[in-house]
Amino acid sequence: MAEATITDVIFDFCGVLFDWQCRDAIEGVFPQDVVDRICSDDDECGFYRYEDRLDAGEDLDDVLADYRREFGDELAGIFRYYQEHYEDALPRLIPGMRQLLEDLHAAGLGVWGLTNWGWQTFPKAFAKFPEIEELLDGTIVSGIEKLHKPNADIYELAMSRFGLTAERSVFFDDTAKNIDGAHAVGMHAFRFTDAEQARKDLASLGVTL
Fold first, then answer.
1. How far is CA 112 from CA 25, 84, 169, in A?
2. Where are the alpha helices (DSSP H) in 5-148?
3. Is 51 exposed, middle or buried, given 0-12, 13-18 or 19+ CB atoms closer than 10 A?
4. Which of 59-97 are b and which e, b meaning 16 or more Cβ less than 10 Å from the residue's Cβ?
5. Packing angle between helix 152-162 and helix 176-184, nearest 10 degrees?
6. DSSP label at residue 141
7. Residues sharing a CB contact under 8 Å with residue 49, sequence separation 6 or more, in sequence order
8. Which residues lie closer than 8 Å to 159 by C-beta, 6 or more apart?
9. Cα(77)–Cα(34) distance, integer angstroms
10. What global pTM score does this model have?
11. Is 2 within 8 Å of 208 (Cβ atoms)?
12. CA distances from 27 to 22, 118, 196 (A)
């Protein structure tokens, strides 16, 4: 690899390393019209809104009690089922990403994870895809730390814990506000679309693989 200023690459998880599909965990188990409502873009049933609370570090039982009060027993039961079968919402790795992580390691770069994810379901990701855990030098999980992207403190924690320098680090996330959060603390950052584009983005910073 040509000498580059970048020494470390940090990856979000869902939508970057893992394909995440809420629908895959509940479709075929519950009525299709209910599944369609749950998975609607406007979050009609509040699944994504309440999952944000889990990502911020709250416990499922506490969140579920509030969910039940707002949406009733039927949807609360589905929400619990979804959380308890979270591995089914992770159908595959994003194509090309395992190879990218392997190539970054071979080039001598640090490879890290930084994800908004609930502490109770996060272990299911590494249990299903242990090769990703092996390829990451370390991971910051919002639900464990009770910090949350795009707030500056979670990026600063990653840099402190892993010994990173902002200007020598690059972060990939599929959500625009999280890219803005990384930029705000001085990191290079790109909105992720696919592995091929990520390689181009890295090359633009002098990282050739």
1. 27, 26, 10
2. 22-26, 32-38, 47-55, 60-71, 73-84, 97-106, 122-128, 130-135, 142-145
3. buried
4. ebeebbeebbeebeeebbebbbebbeebbbbbeebbeeb
5. 60
6. E
7. 43
8. 165, 166, 169, 185
9. 12
10. 0.94
11. yes
12. 9, 22, 31
Compute the distance between CA of residue 64 and CA of residue 6 in angstroms, rounded to an integer: 42
> Six-digit token pair at 118?
């609930």
The residue type found at 184 is A
The CA distance from 89 to 98, in Å, is: 19
Cα-Cα-Cα-Cα torsion 114, 118, 121, 123, nearest 10 degrees, comes to 40
Residue 35's alpha-carbon distances to 14, 79, 110, 122, 185, in angstroms, are: 20, 11, 40, 23, 39
Q: Tens place of pLDDT for every residue, the chain, 209 residues?
A: 344 599 999 999 999 999 999 999 999 999 999 999 999 999 999 999 999 999 999 999 999 999 999 999 999 999 999 999 999 999 999 999 999 999 999 999 999 999 999 999 999 999 999 999 999 999 999 999 999 999 999 999 999 999 999 999 999 999 999 999 999 999 999 999 999 999 999 999 999 89
What is the identity of the amino acid at 69?
R
DSSP assigned state of 91: -
